[in-house]
Amino acid sequence: MSFAPVLHAEWLKIRTLRSLCGTLLALFAVTVAFSALAGTSGTSDPEFDPLFTALSGVAPGQIAAIAFGTTAVSCEFHGGGLRLTLSAVPQRGRWFAAKVTAVAVPALLMGLVTAFAALVVARAGLGDAASGLTVGEQVRGVVGCGLYLMLMALFSAGLAALLRSGVATLSILIPFVLVVSFVIGDAAGTAADLLPDRAGQVVLYQTYDGTLGPWSGLAVTALWTAAALLAGAWSVRRRDA
Amino acid sequence: MTSIDVQDLTKEYGPRRAVDHLTFRVLPGRVTGFLGPNGAGKSTTMRLVLGLDRPTSGTATVGGRAYATLREPLHHVGALLDAQAAHGSRTGRDHLRTLAAGNRIPDRRVDEVLEETGLAPAARRRVKTYSLGMRQRLGIAAALLGDPEVVMLDEPSNGLDPEGIIWIRELLRRLAGEGRTVLVSSHLMNETASFADHLVVLGRGRLLADTPMREFIDARVRPRVRIRTTDPTALRDVLARHGHDAQQHEEGHWTVHHARVDDIGRLVSAEGVPVLELTAQEGTLEQAYLDLTAEEAEFAAHPSTPQPQEA
């Protein structure tokens, strides 16, 4: 059995669930809306960073990316759904790879479109305050933002496969990105900078002064994601369906 | 060639042994009824055959191959395990399309099985609006998608209306008639008796019987004859003289135990006893099954030989 039909099946599963398409639209809508809002508010903060301000909608918007990755996997665990899936595709490693790909591609594409739209909309509000941004910085911000959202979706997908539950996954991740990371991040130094969301968000800043740069930060997030996906793959392969 | 072969199969969940050194074959061209009380290991065995659970020891193969090594398995094996497995938010048709796509089955075939299972009018409705019977039909449609040589259905008549039960019976007979291998689990005896040719019976994970259904019943339940007469005295006399064990009921009819209708009919006719009614009461699968399980319970309560300690 080759990979393409399995990927086709997984893509169909995502396309045919309204809730999944809905979370991708929410990712776009929430991110752009919050970025637009940030663009119109004050720019007098001494730590004002025009690139991060323009992309700040990602902070709430990433919840949708997390929900997308989680739901895409957890919908397999409803009432023996995984058994049905694995009786059609018994090669579990191949199935999980197809699932991950079917989550990654739409998350990345929607992430890029969202970041671009957020930047355009926020810049319209920021006006001259954002004029210092170079083309290179803006491209880096948009591409990095797309990658970041994809990695967060995949991180959630891996965790959902490990925990076999959407509710458990979301109740860990959402408080984590909303509260824990925020609070610890403000308080502490280098260790907190290595948390998956903190590290990956460095790429959203015009200027950065920590130990991590934009790409090394994304690489740290990618390591977290890889670990979650490996744990998920291990669980899918080893455990009884 | 496409039989299901279960060889010394054992599955333990922690300390509980769900399947215990099970060996049997399911052959093509007949419907094999898979019987046993709840928790006897029928569903576990089916999951082991499909490679969904890992056996503690032993093997289960389809056509000589482990399920997980089959390429595009829906073309070989179709299974219904749980009618609730379809995601409620998809339409019935989309649900089948997602299964079909991974096995390169065209959408045309999806529409065919929807038609065949009578779901075509509901195909574009979401599964959560389906009744249990419709979900059951959807699960059967999924099992038929790849036109497989082996069909394995776990409790397919659950939730079906009387019309649906007749439909599934005819479907199973037809599939077996086409030379396919058909394994159907159930705990409804009358239902199983209506479609099965062969029986595999489990009890507490062990194989209790693997025989043709007729033999299973005949070996355990002696046939009886129901008879009604206008002359009870003559009937009693004739039956007693020929050593038959007869019993008169308050309603006026008689039951002759351990007798065949051919013998009793000839006998009473030769003796000139007036007969109003003469009916064969063949043993039913239910009686045979209860006889077997009673024996099992007896065996479990008073083991005649020391039992190996369960791990």
From TrEMBL, chain A:
<feature type="transmembrane region" description="Helical">
    <location>
        <begin position="51"/>
        <end position="75"/>
    </location>
</feature>
<keyword id="KW-0472">Membrane</keyword>
<feature type="transmembrane region" description="Helical">
    <location>
        <begin position="212"/>
        <end position="236"/>
    </location>
</feature>
<feature type="transmembrane region" description="Helical">
    <location>
        <begin position="170"/>
        <end position="192"/>
    </location>
</feature>
<feature type="transmembrane region" description="Helical">
    <location>
        <begin position="141"/>
        <end position="163"/>
    </location>
</feature>
<keyword id="KW-1133">Transmembrane helix</keyword>
<feature type="transmembrane region" description="Helical">
    <location>
        <begin position="96"/>
        <end position="121"/>
    </location>
</feature>
<protein>
    <submittedName>
        <fullName>ABC transporter</fullName>
    </submittedName>
</protein>
<keyword id="KW-0812">Transmembrane</keyword>
TrEMBL record, chain B:
<dbReference type="Pfam" id="PF00005">
    <property type="entry name" value="ABC_tran"/>
</dbReference>
<dbReference type="InterPro" id="IPR003593">
    <property type="entry name" value="AAA+_ATPase"/>
</dbReference>
<dbReference type="InterPro" id="IPR003439">
    <property type="entry name" value="ABC_transporter-like_ATP-bd"/>
</dbReference>
<keyword id="KW-0547">Nucleotide-binding</keyword>
<comment type="similarity">
    <text>Belongs to the ABC transporter superfamily.</text>
</comment>
<feature type="domain" description="ABC transporter">
    <location>
        <begin position="4"/>
        <end position="229"/>
    </location>
</feature>
<dbReference type="GO" id="GO:0005524">
    <property type="term" value="F:ATP binding"/>
</dbReference>
<dbReference type="InterPro" id="IPR027417">
    <property type="entry name" value="P-loop_NTPase"/>
</dbReference>
<dbReference type="InterPro" id="IPR017871">
    <property type="entry name" value="ABC_transporter-like_CS"/>
</dbReference>
<keyword id="KW-0067">ATP-binding</keyword>
<protein>
    <submittedName>
        <fullName>Multidrug ABC transporter ATP-binding protein</fullName>
    </submittedName>
</protein>
<dbReference type="GO" id="GO:0016887">
    <property type="term" value="F:ATP hydrolysis activity"/>
</dbReference>
<keyword id="KW-0813">Transport</keyword>
